[in-house]
Amino acid sequence: xxxxxxxxxxxxxxxxxxxxxxxxxxxxxxxxxxxxxxxxxxxxxxxxxxxxxxxxxxxxxxxxxxxxxxxxxxxxxxxxxxx
Length: 83
Description:
The chain is an alpha+beta fold. It has one domain. The chain is built from 2 helices and 4 strands. The protein has helices spanning 5-9, 14-25; strands spanning 37-44, 49-56, 60-71, 74-82. Strand 2 and strand 3 form a beta hairpin. The longest helix has 12 residues, at 14-25. The radius of gyration is 12 Å and the shape is globular.
């Protein structure tokens, strides 16, 4: 487990990588966000469980947890909250 930019390398699950890229690119069609950015602090299980620094225009920056359920290679459910 790494911290900072190296932690993103621990995310090997393609669907989770795509979600992170969509959030950081502001891609509202792929993932609704209000000018958000997600920096992975630590990742487990290929990225199915994350601790991340998340920031957006509405709430500012906060440390968050993310847990993803994948079905057929796609995110079918995720839970997030403050860490």
